[in-house]
Amino acid sequence: MGILAAFSTSALAATYQQNGLLDHAVKVYKTSIENLKDFLPSHHEVILNQTAILAATYRALGRLQVAEAVLSEPLRLFPQVISNSARQQIRRQMIHVYSEMGHTTEMASLIAEEDEETNVQIAQLQSSRNPTNERRIKSFKAKKLHALEDLGICAFHERDYRKAEQALLQYLSLAEEMYGNKGSTTHGMLVLGELYNQIKRHEEAKRYLDLAIRIREKDPDEDYKQIYHLRIARLSVCSTLKERKEARFNTVKLLEECRARFGDTHDITLTALLKLIDRLNEQGQRNDAINLGRLHVELCGKTVGTQRPRTGFAKFRVALLLWDFACWDEAIEMQEEVVSIYVKAHGSNHPKTAQMREQLEWMKRGASLRRRIETLVPGAIVLGTARMILAFRAWLTRLVYYFA
C-alpha cells in the first residue's frame, strides 16, 4: 500500500472520529500505522498526531484503558523509527492517561524519563552559550513544570501525600525561578494547600492558600475563577471549632456569590455547594446535607450528564450520608448506581471502579450483619434505636458548635 493510500486511510479515520464512530476510527488508524511502518519517520507524523487526538477523545469520554491501548500501539509497531518529537507527544498523552487512571507508579516512571531527557537538552543548550537558545531552554523548563504539577496532583488524589508534597514543592521552586510570584504559580499552591489541609498541617495550608490569593488579587491578568477556587479551599482549612462555625456562614455567602456570578451549574458553584454540604454534615445537620447532596447530584447530571464519573461521585457522597443516617437500603441502592456509572466510564478493572465496588461490598456486609441482628430483635426496633443514637449524636454536635 502506497503513501497516498495510507494518508487517505488516515483521512477516513479522521472522518469517522469527527462523526463519533471511534471504534471504526481505531481500526482504520491501526491499518494506517501497519502500512506506514516501513517508511521514513517523517511519514509517521500525521498518523501519530491523529493517534494522539484519538486518545485525547477517548480520555474525554472516560474510556481510559482504550486510550492507553491506542497510544501503546505505535510504540509496539515501530519503536525504532518514531522521531523524538512524536515519542514525546505520545509519552505526554500517556502521562495524562495514567494520571486519570490513578497509576502513579507508571506516571512517575514516564515523568522521570521525560525529566531526564529535558535535563540533557537544557544542559546542551546552556553549554553552547547561544543567546537564541534562551527561549528553547524556557520551553523545556515549562515542560518540566507541567510534568511536576501532573505528578503532584495525581499523587495527591491517590493519597500518596509524601510524593505529592515533594513534586509540588519542586514545582513551586521551579515556577518561582521562571515566573516569580505570578498568577501562573497559584494552581500548584492550591493543590499544596489542599494537601496540607488533608494531612492536618493547617498552618502551612493557610500560608500557601493566603499567599496564592494575594498573588491572584495583585496579578494584572487576574483570573477570577482561580480566585474563587482558592477562596473555597481556604474556607476548608479550619483547625478550631470557632473557625469551622465561621466557615459555614462564609461558605453560604460564597455560594450565593458564585450562583449570582456563574449560575447554578457552573463548576465553581458546584464546588462551593460541595463544601457547604461538608460543613453541614460536620456540624450535625445531616438531613440538610442529604437534601443538598441530592441537589448536587441533580445539578451535576445537568452539567456533565447522568452517567459521567462526576455525577457518580456526587451520588457516592450522598450514599455515604444516607448510610450514616441509617437509611441503609437506600444507600446500597445508590451505591449500586455509582458502581454501574464507574464501570461504564472507566471499565471494570479501573482502580476507581474497584474502590466504589469495595465500598458497596462493605455496605452489603453491614446490611447482612443487620439482618442477622434482626433475627434476634425486631427490625423496627433495630432501625429505631440506630436512628435515635444518630439523632442524639447530631444534636450533641450542633450543641457543641452553638456554644463554640
Structure, briefly:
The chain contains 18 helices and no strands.
CATH architectural arrangement of the domain at 238-404: Alpha Horseshoe
Distance between the termini: 78 Å
Let me know the largest β-sheet.
none
How many strands appear in the DSSP assignment? 0
Radius of gyration: 25 Å
- The global form is globular
Helix content: over 70%
How many distinct helices?
Answer: 18
Reading the helices and strands in chain order gives HHHHHHHHHHHHHHHHHH
Task: Name the CATH superfamily classification of the domain at 238-404.
Answer: Tetratricopeptide repeat domain
Structural class comes to mainly alpha
Mean pLDDT: 78
The parts where pLDDT drops under 50 for at least 5 residues are none
Examine the coordinates and then state which fold CATH places here, giving the name of the CATH topology of the domain at 238-404. Serine Threonine Protein Phosphatase 5, Tetratricopeptide repeat
CATH secondary-structure class of the domain at 238-404 = Mainly Alpha
What portion of residues belong to β-strands? under 5%
